Automatic annotation (TrEMBL):
PANTHER family reported for this sequence: SERINE/THREONINE-PROTEIN KINASE 16, SERINE_THREONINE-PROTEIN KINASE 16
PROSITE patterns: PROTEIN_KINASE_DOM
Positions of the Protein kinase domain: 33-361
Domain of life from the UniProt record: Eukaryota
EC number(s) recorded for this UniProt protein: 2.7.11.1
Broadest EC class assigned to this enzyme: transferase
CC per GO annotation: Golgi apparatus; vacuole
A GO molecular-function annotation: ATP binding
Catalytic reaction equation(s): L-seryl-[protein] + ATP = O-phospho-L-seryl-[protein] + ADP + H(+); L-threonyl-[protein] + ATP = O-phospho-L-threonyl-[protein] + ADP + H(+)
InterPro entries in UniProt: Kinase-like_dom_sf, Prot_kinase_dom, Ser/Thr-specific_kinases
Native source species: Maudiozyma saulgeensis
Full protein name: non-specific serine/threonine protein kinase
Amino acid sequence: MNIPDSLKYYFSLYCCDYGGTNDLFIKVNGNRFKIIRLLAEGDLTFVYLLKSVEETLYRNGNYFALKKITCPFGDIESVSNALQEIDCYKIFQNPHIVSCVDSQIIQGKDGSKTIYILLPYFKYGSIQETINRNLLDGTYISEQECIRLTIDICTGLICLHDPKKRPYEDIESNFNSSTALNTTEETEGLLTDTPLDASTIYSHRDHAISYSHKNLKPSNILIADDHTPVIGDLSSCSKATVTFDSETQLETLKEWVSRNCQIEYAAPELLNPKMNTTIGTKVDVWSLGCTLYSLMFGISPFEREEQINGTPKRAAIQKGLFSFPQQSRYTQGLLEIVNRCITVDPASRYSARELLEQLTILQVSK
């Protein structure tokens, strides 16, 4: 990997160093990792593939994904959002939800803050990559495999949606472990130039409420080494139940959705919230239904509707307009489950628990 001197200097500002002409390293809470390559990037966010090089908390040679979030000076919202994301990685102790390995806040010389979130690396990629490979190879995912994957994802969603499904003791242990975000005097010092203080770090930690992911889609569902799906990217995860009683709240949500949600998988109540209505956990069931459709047919239902009939995606979503390709590969039972997930009225839509029950019945009947 050929690394320009300018990039080496840039990284040196954020606890990075390089050993030799082309190797670049980074430290997270004193643990040293080699940067292998850039995996993804956004406006202020970069994700890198790392390899551990020291026998510390991690076995030498392990691979990780590092999410690096740059929070400009005075940008309180971005710091708060990053801290909320870290908390979410720690709250949900479930094999089908990704967990944080380590995290750190770094104060920049210009007053900005850089937040590192160290996550497991999934060498098999995401469900979206599986879908893409099948399209290229002209293959498909069997009904049994679609059911298996969706059951596991549903199990993860239930942990998000139902606080009773979270092991409280394990959560407290995780927050107090050596991998938890440092909240000592050093951390408080990092927050002194903003209205934030250490209490902000704890403000998101409510174990007794329901959460929803709000941006569930094939590219956010990762494949573990044992080929089970793992819900990833909890940056959009927050309190599930939200009621709107002002136009300002509606506009704030619409702006947030436009920045954080992929329209093809977003529920209609997220895309077009209305006054005096409540958004709940079933937004994730809609997204999972669209994801299941994509697993089956290689395209999201409303992308296909736009291609086949010319209906704009947003309009099709609001009316629930979609159809299934003519095929004999999948049973009517599975198609009906998809229909009940992608139902415009949340009251008629499955809950995650109801969806799990129906999938299990269908799986057993095979």
